[in-house]
Amino acid sequence: MKEKNKQKSRTGVIISVAAVTAAVTFILTSYFNLRIFNGKLANVNSLSKTYSELKEVSDCIDENYYTNADEENVKNGILKGYVSGLNDKYSKYMTPDEYSQFTDTESGNSTGIGITVSKTEDGYIKVEEIAEEGPAAKENIKVGDIIVSVEGDDVSELGYEEAINKIKGEDGTKVNLSILRNNNQIEVTALRKTYEVKSVYYQMLNDNVGYIRITGFRTATINQFSDAFAELEKDGAKKYIFDVRNNGGGLLSALQEIIDPLLPEGDIATANYKGGKVETVIKSDSQYIDVPAVVLVNENTASAAELFSCSLRDFTGAKLVGTQTYGKGVMQNTYKLSNGGAVTLTVATYQTTKSECYNGVGLVPDNVVESNENDDIKSADPEKDAQLSEALSIIENEN
Asked: Could you say which of 172, 261, 263, 368 is the most buried, measured as most Cβ atoms within 10 Å of its Cβ?
């Protein structure tokens, strides 16, 4: 009897504990579900208030604005304004057309006639640079030309941005331009095409020093850099000067491919996300080309170009020469939207595994050298470029 009572007692205790556990679980689950529900309800209420305010503004515009509003422009303005409210200069909303141009740029391709332009004081378009791989290089278009009309429409009347958009177009189509050169008006028909933008330039500076300038880290840059390095190696290069002055950065995926062979094996850089998540974003395998190097930097060296410079200094001892860099140590991801547009958002800070994050600070060169007024970093001429001259002097003394 006593044994049975003991068993009943134990069974009762077990049932009681199970019941209490179930009750606690139910209470905790209900509590957290309620918190989640309340959080979602707060979000719904907040969005409802926002939509209500937007409708009020929309009704006011419909009733009082002096002409009919362009609904597409208004919608794009709302979306751009929403993201700009983050007060983050790197986050942005892109329209479908802007996103298409963005993806072309990231890949290293461009569609158009291959010119870089600026706006003149009287509202016309001045040709500042002609891409050697673009169609304009084969047409009767020269640096310094003033584009005064596009397809018969006066540029100053069209507006600068509208005229630029009209010059751009689909691959294989033509655009008619009126160009002013030395007070003479010239009619030019240019064929638009998609072409690979050159982002790597190289040459030998002496018998054993190779020079490679990288203007951006794009998908196409990977093969361009590999080809440049191979050609210089074939020409006898044993030491290198990498020039990333005025390089605003680009894709970390491109940087990974380019810098991997230049670094010893291991984790090179990590990203720090919201909530404390840390992830390796740049790593190097065991294939390592150990070459002495100097990196040229300036105040416009930013983002992936800074990570390139910092990684070479941290892991190979490469010296940095020039002026303090821009200081962009944050990473963006771009998310395509259902309307064909996209949102670019800052998602993390990043740094090498040996240095602090340089965001907002920049990298201080080992040898600070100010740029001469007459410097042209495209020429790779040490006699005209004080920073390049200093870099060459340093690398020549490296073993």
From this structure: 263
Instruction: Tell me the two tokens of residue 142.
Output: 């020269």
Q: 198-204: long-range contacts (C-beta < 8 A, 24 or more apart)?
A: 198/131, 198/132, 198/133, 198/224, 199/108, 199/224, 200/224, 200/225, 200/227, 200/228, 201/228, 201/378, 201/380, 202/228, 202/231, 202/232, 203/380, 204/232, 204/235, 204/236, 204/237
Residue 283 bridge partners (DSSP): 267
The beta strands (E) that lie in the chain are given as 92-94, 109-112, 115-119, 125-130, 146-150, 153-154, 174-181, 184-191, 193-196, 200-204, 209-214, 239-243, 266-273, 278-284, 293-297, 319-322, 330-336, 342-352, 367-368
Residue 376 identity (one-letter amino acid): D
Place of tokens 């006011």: 60
Confidence (pLDDT) at 44: 60
pLDDT digits (tens, 9 = 90+) for 328-374: 999 999 999 999 999 999 999 999 999 999 999 999 999 999 987 55
